[in-house]
């Protein structure tokens, strides 16, 4: 069901009429949005970080759960490169995957990377993978937890990522883009 601006305004005004003392202080939706425009965020087309993450070929199948079929894919290592940052992917993390009833794969990867100069950064990367209509959609929202200092710029920005699967050897290439 599509809700129009007029329908939204009517619903809002009907709701507010139940609270007469507050109705006069809340502006109509169209006027408030028009008075306070903003620009849409953009994604920098050059990746700030590229990761080659190796995976074990054996998944841990947890079976069907309340949310779908769950598996764990252990992370065995890898490396990463970026502007003024490079290093290794630390073995021991994992990608917790759920294949939902609608066929969408939810991913939740938690692992660490270690820079060439010894800083350890936690990567919390969540997203979805879909193959609807024969087109692969694999988008994530990585969040970084870096120590204060040279790499804490990762803590202060939002990022989106893409995932490309590699079958042999089992790995993924993750590209991370800054949202401006």
Give the arrangement of secondary structure elements.
Elements: H1 5-17, H2 20-23, H3 29-35, E1 49-55, E2 60-65, E3 68-82, E4 85-99, E5 105-115, E6 120-130, E7 137-145, E8 158-166, E9 171-179
Q: Kindly provide the radius of gyration, computed on alpha-carbon positions and rounded to a whole number of angstroms.
A: 22 Å
Relative strand content: over 45%
Share of helix among residues?
10-25%
Order of helices and strands: HHHEEEEEEEEE
The CATH topology assignment of the largest domain is: Porin
What is the number of strand segments?
Answer: 9
Low-confidence stretches: none
CATH level-1 class of the largest domain: Mainly Beta
Shape: globular
Q: How would a crystallographer describe the biggest sheet?
A: 8 strands, antiparallel, barrel
CATH architectural name of the largest domain: Beta Barrel
**Global mean pLDDT:** 90
Major sheet strand order:
1-3-4-5-6-7-8-9
Q: Helical stretch count?
A: 3
Count of discrete structural domains: 2
